[in-house]
Automatic annotation (TrEMBL):
It comes from Discina gigas. Pfam families: Aminotran_1_2. Its EC number is 2.6.1.1. Its cofactor is pyridoxal 5'-phosphate. This is Aspartate aminotransferase. It catalyses: L-aspartate + 2-oxoglutarate = oxaloacetate + L-glutamate. GO terms for molecular function: L-aspartate:2-oxoglutarate aminotransferase activity. The gene is AAT1. Homodimer.
Length: 406
């Protein structure tokens, strides 16, 4: 018999491929022949024509790179220093007093950063190896940390009744966790709910995390993509650092540079001193080397070019803002459209939520009805990707949502 006859068929894995957010949706969407069908399951930005968007700053960086005729030698284990330095500066800010104490490595986008972080905690975190993730969270968080052999538990985050943040539940769960637990925090544009704490709530969260002696592990997959301003979106990360938290941070350039398939990101740890940074750097290298030796150079070169060239950087920031603004405009249009239809329900959460995703509050049967009657496809938890809305389809989507909720 085959060596692998004992390997069972696993359940379908949700692919990173944006057209395949949930297998059922994609198939149903593809098979649908209605010309006005709408896919709100996509996990990647789309332009106002519903097409994938390559940032002009990225195109320019690519052209410059080709012209430079660079070699294809290996990067160092932790990537190219020009990239990691620029990534750290973007996250922690150029004026941060801790910049010199950051141990950082390039990573295979945000996912790879989380996986290195999981491995580092598993090997070196001196207290309980339980990581608390929000309920709900990006589904891959639990998978990544379980594969890192950490215990994964949840803290309350989303309140179904208010379609907003369950701040009381969140604070209570942090308070009641065993001292020195690890908490995964979405830095901005929480996926899947689009619900973020306010700056004031972040300050309270910081206090409660500190009082418990907990460790803050930030996932910042959407810096700039949420508000359109990379500084504003880094508020929580920078505030925690200011308050003396020794944070871990995962960064991704998938969304804010549209470099999804290039797989460029970073993982960093804040050290207490230059001497400690050296020790952390050495152990990160020891972790990465047997995993994949060293990271790919292509995407990192594009990001480096954009981050380190002042003119291109300014252009990129305006393009990030353009993406965020389009999403914010679509939120306004969807809410406005529902009001125009005479919907008696409250839709304020559509515009108070942020980032690519919106938790509409639609029930699974209503999501099914949207698909079956109106050819509009979202996930059954009521999540829609706002990036799938366009000025051409938003009115139709609003009318259809009204029809299934009135
Ligand atoms: N973290 C969150 C919350 C995400 O939503 C994503 C992508 O959807 C990621 C991390 C990582 O994505 P990537 O590995 O493409 O950078």
């Amino acid at each position: 018999s085959s060596t692998w006859s004992n390997v069972p068929q696993g359940p379908p894995t949700h692919s990173r491929n944006s057209t395949n957010t949930l297998p059922g949706i994609t198939e149903a969407f593809k098979a649908n022949t209605f010309t006005n069908k709408v896919n709100l399951g996509v996990g990647a930005y789309r332009d106002d024509a519903g097409k994938p968007y390559v940032l002009p700053s990225v195109r320019t960086a690519e052209k410059r790179l080709i012209f430079k005729e660079l070699d294809k030698e290996y990067a160092g284990i932790t990537g190219t220093p020009a990239f990691t330095k620029a990534a750290a500066t973007l996250a922690y800010s150029a004026s941060s007093p801790v910049l010199d104490n950051i141990a950082i490595t390039q990573s295979i986008s945000g996912t790879g950063a989380l996986r290195i972080g999981g491995a580092f905690l598993e090997r070196f975190y001196p207290h309980s190896k339980t990581i608390y993730v929000p309920s709900p969270s990006w589904a891959n968080h639990a998978a990544i940390f379980k594969d890192s052999r950490l215990d994964v538990k949840q803290y309350r985050y989303y309140n179904k009744e208010t379609i907003g943040l369950d701040i009381d539940g969140l604070l209570a769960d942090i308070k009641n966790a065993p001292p020195r637990s690890v908490f995964l925090l979405h830095a901005c544009a929480h996926n899947p709910t689009g619900v973020d704490p306010t700056p004031e709530q972040w300050r309270t969260i910081s206090d409660v995390v500190k009082n418990g002696g907990h460790f803050a592990f930030f996932d910042m997959a959407y810096q700039g993509f949420a508000s359109g301003d990379t500084d504003k979106d880094a508020y929580a990360v920078r505030y925690f650092v200011e308050q003396g938290h020794q944070i871990a941070l995962c960064q991704s350039f998938a969304k804010n540079m549209g470099l999804y398939g290039e797989r460029v990101g970073a993982f960093s740890l804040l050290a207490a001193s230059a001497e400690e940074k050296k020790r952390l750097d050495s152990q990160i290298k020891i972790l990465v080397r047997p995993l994949y030796s060293n990271p790919p150079i292509g995407g990192a070169r594009i990001a480096t070019e954009i981050l380190n060239d002042p003119e291109l950087n300014t252009q990129w920031l305006s393009e990030v803002k353009g993406m965020a603004d389009r999403i914010i405009a679509m939120r306004d249009a969807l809410k406005g459209g529902l009001e125009e239809c005479g919907s008696k329900l409250k839709w304020d959460h559509i515009t108070s939520q942020i980032g690519m995703f919106c938790y509409t509050g639609l029930r699974p049967e209503q999501v099914d009805e949207l698909a079956n009657k109106y050819s509009i496809y979202g996930t059954r938890d009521g999540r829609i990707s706002v990036a799938g809305l366009t000025s051409g389809n938003v009115k139709y989507v609003a009318e259809s949502i009204h029809n299934v909720t009135k």
